[in-house]
Write a structure and sequence with these properties.
- The complex is a heterodimer of chains A (100) and B (466).
- Chain A is an all-alpha fold and 100 residues long.
- Helix content of chain A is 56%, strand content 0%.
- Chain A has a single domain, classed as Non-ribosomal Peptide Synthetase Peptidyl Carrier Protein, Chain A.
- Chain A is built from 4 helices and no strands.
- Chain A is globular, with a radius of gyration of 13 Å.
- By secondary structure, chain B is α/β, with parallel strands linked by helices.
- Chain B is built from 12 helices and 26 strands.
- In chain B, the strands form 7 sheets. A 7-stranded mixed sheet of chain B has the order 6-5-3-4-7-8-19, with helices on both faces. In chain B, strands 2-1-10-9 form a 4-stranded mixed sheet, with helices on both faces. Chain B has a 4-stranded antiparallel sheet with strand order 17-18-20-21.
- Classes of the chains: A mainly alpha (100), B alpha/beta (466).
- Chains A and B meet through helix 2 and helix 3 of A and helix 12 of B.
Chain lengths: 100, 466
């Protein structure tokens, strides 16, 4: 999967999640959107739901099975869940490792 | 001796029906004679008092008469049914059974002497006091089954108090504390036992109609199946006075639906454990999960939200595990309860609580909401580990009719969000095809530490809600 394809998959999930959120809480489809942490728009439960939805999307549409929320993700120096961009990068990295 | 009080009841009800098996009825006079027959047979087979005897059977005229005759002979009984066929050899070994009585579908008996010599401190204690014993296996789905040894003299004590007599269907099994409770309650009050050879909703309700059954002890899973199969529409259930439920938590939505359909039926929650017997119980009302439990010989207390019970009929202990009793004979049920005055509400097993970022989620509450959603046949809610919140709530759902999974999952989550706090809403919903209940009509849970008590009857029936 190219980074662009991953980005598209993440944006599609954001669309789905936004459908369930009130206007003011919706997540902007932008790489700079801050997800979690200082000024983040999600609480831990919201983050879990986003991550599981992305995992399921990658499984269904691209047939790749990865775990985004695990000890490894939690122990990264820079949290992969900080922004949409960092999340896309983290997914790309995991997928690359799969291929290797 | 031990069964004298039962024999007196049988004499008094001589002409009444004691048992309906297949399409034949058997009177109390027949039962008295049959007990006598088996007592003679036990003598002629040279079975010594205190022997550990396996009874492989389901409820039938001979299995009931033989049970009583063996009790009178102070044997230690190990009832087993076909539902545990795969573990039968293991159970016989754990119990160190010395003789096997096997009763087939035609009510014919085969006696086999086994090569074991039973030897256990609890058995010695029973033999020394010439008390009949009973070995019951917990049906925990993980780990080894535990064998609880009871003194039948203690277990039977409460049946000496006369209560109501009902035509009762023995739905719970012959090797289960609930099934045995049903049998003793019915017989000790001169009621009539209606047996069932097949335990599907239609076959059970057919017998309710045909034999005008008044008391039906079942599990919540089975009530759900009655509703789903719509079998209740095909039979006349006007004879039913009481339905008791136990062995696992009842989804509030299922209870409300059943009560709405059958306002004339009194619904009573039962609570008991293989280790302690079954408590007397009183539901606040037919549509309430609040229940008062206790009765003669049972004391209850709640410690840090967990129900503890002290029972005079408690088992002596496990054959194959250390004693679970805490100080002074109290037993930790590991069931989490809420209290309102004298009433309790059983929230679920401590081991099944899902901890989501510090918040507790009880599977039963989430299941009740999902169960009330359109097209859901059954659901099991469980936790899955997650690095962010510790655990997440997941649901495994079986549908009634096939349906496009994606939109359904979306609607279902939306429905949950409307009815539950955020952290209780399942993050993952899996649509599955396999049924989620055991042969005992109880939900199969992945993390079961042990079974809920199941129970039944007595003056209801009950079980522990798991």
């Amino acid at each position: 999967m190219t980074r662009e394809e991953i980005k598209q998959a993440v944006f599609n999930v954001l669309d789905e999640i936004n459908q369930e959120l009130p206007q003011e809480k919706q997540l902007e489809k932008s790489e700079t959107t801050v997800l979690f942490g200082k000024f983040g728009q999600l609480d831990s439960l919201g983050l879990v739901n986003l991550i599981v939805a992305i995992e399921e999307k990658l499984q269904e549409e691209c047939n790749v099975s990865i775990t985004l929320a695990d000890e490894r993700a939690m122990s990264q120096r820079n949290s992969p869940f900080r922004t949409v961009a960092s999340l896309i990068d983290y997914i790309a990295m995991l997928l690359n490792e799969e291929i290797d | 001796m031990l069964i004298d009080f039962l024999l007196a009841v049988f004499e008094k009800n001589n002409e009444k029906n004691a048992i309906v098996w297949k399409d034949k009825t058997y009177s109390y006079a027949w039962l008295l004679e049959r007990i006598n027959y088996w007592q003679n047979r036990i003598q002629s087979e040279n079975i010594e008092k205190g022997k550990v005897v396996v009874l492989e059977a389901d409820f039938s005229p001979n299995s009931i008469a033989l049970f009583l005759a063996l009790m009178e002979h102070a044997c230690i009984l190990v009832p087993l049914t076909r539902s545990i066929e795969s573990q039968q050899a293991e159970f016989i070994e754990i119990a160190q059974a010395e003789i096997s009585f096997s009763i087939d579908d035609n009510d014919h008996l085969k006696i086999t002497k086994l090569p074991n010599v039973a030897h256990h401190e609890f058995y010695t204690r029973l033999k020394t006091s010439s008390h009949a014993g009973l070995v019951l296996f917990s049906s925990g789905s993980t780990g080894k089954s535990k064998a609880a040894v009871h003194d039948l003299v203690k277990l039977l004590e409460k049946f000496k108090i006369p209560r109501y007599n009902y035509i009762t269907l023995t739905f719970l099994l012959y090797d289960h504390i609930g099934g045995l409770e049903t049998m003793f309650y019915t017989l000790s009050n001169g009621g009539c036992i209606v047996t069932a050879q097949t335990r599907s909703p239609d076959r059970i309700l057919e017998r309710v109609e045909k034999y005008k059954v008044e008391l039906l002890p079942v599990s919540p899973t089975f009530i759900n199946l009655i509703l789903l199969s719509e079998s209740y529409k095909r039979y006349d259930l006007s004879s039913l006075k009481i339905v008791t439920y136990g062995t696992e938590p009842m989804p509030e939505s299922t209870l409300a639906r059943f009560q709405g359909l059958f306002p004339h039926i009194k619904l009573i929650q039962k609570y008991g454990l293989s280790e302690l017997g079954i408590l007397r119980s009183k539901s606040k009302s037919s549509n309430s999960l609040w229940v008062k439990v206790g009765g003669e010989g049972f004391q209850t207390r709640v410690v840090e939200g967990i129900l503890q019970i002290k029972a005079s009929s408690a088992m002596l202990g496990y054959l194959n595990a250390p004693t679970p009793f805490i100080e002074d004979g109290w037993f930790n049920t590991k069931d989490v309860v809420e209290i309102d005055g004298e009433y309790l509400k059983i929230l679920g097993r401590q081991s099944e609580i899902i901890n989501v970022g510090g918040e507790k989620v009880y599977p039963a509450e989430v299941e009740s909401v999902i169960q009330s959603f359109d097209n859901v046949a059954e659901v099991t809610v469980y936790g899955e580990q997650n690095a962010i919140t510790g655990n997440i709530v997941c649901a495994k759902v079986r549908l009634l009719k096939e349906e496009d999974k994606k939109p359904l999952t979306k609607r279902l989550k939306h429905y949950c969000r409307e009815h539950l706090q955020n952290y209780k809403v399942p993050v993952k919903v899996k649509i599955v095809e396999e049924k989620q209940y055991s042969e005992r009509f109880k939900k199969i849970r992945q993390n079961n530490q042990r079974d809920h008590p199941e129970t039944p009857i007595s003056n209801g029936m009950s079980f522990r809600a798991k």
